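Input chain follows. Return structure tokens only.
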Amino acid sequence: MLKRLVLVALLLLSVRAQALEYTDVYYNPDESGWGVFLVQSDTTQFLAFFIYGPDGKPTWYVAIIANDGTGNYTGSLYATTGTYFAAPWQGDVVSTVGTASFTPIDSYHATLTYTVNGVGTVTKTVQRQTLTPYVLAGNYSGSMAGLISACNDPTQNDPSFRARYALAVTQVGDTSATLTFTFVDQSHNGIVCTLSGPLTHLGRLYQLAGQVACTGPGQTGVPYPATIDGLHPTGQGIEGHVTASVSGCSASLHFSAVLNVNH
């Protein structure tokens, strides 16, 4: 029973509200035409705005903001001017003109607030902007790590859950995907969990909301509702973060895998 509970909890997936890394293009889908490029380095973010002045012409602002310890990012807003692009570069002028903040709502959405001295404060809800589909399909090798807690039966808690697996991913464009985890570590060897469902694509991340069913030792094959958030390709493979609440337990787990390359 414990093994079945752990494996089911392992694959009932949803992401924590705050992603660790927010690099992406952000915009408001109801106000297409302006937006923000955000690049994150550790706990610091650099934002470049593409917005417009009172004359309707592009206006150049940038911000350098840092994590304030609560998961939100705040800092200074700068206006910049420089040499005409077709002329030899003579330098730029940077002026501090206000403040900016980026407050994550979840992994995909945030509240962007910036104040320009003498003009006022702008507050917008923004989301990651999707550009093109990513290829997730392939065969991978990886591991999961995290914790299972708050169980009605305390003996089922596991503060240092670990598992290894082979992962096969199939994908139908940006429409749907299936992830099949074949566990190979000693504690879970022979268990296979298949998770499939429709995809939602926002910027660099996917969300998959569907079902998972596990077969093998101690498994029933009964499907459970499942969600994967923060699913995305990396330079070497695929990764995401998972949480679940099932049968009186809560699970919080990261998974990551490298692509198997045949030479």
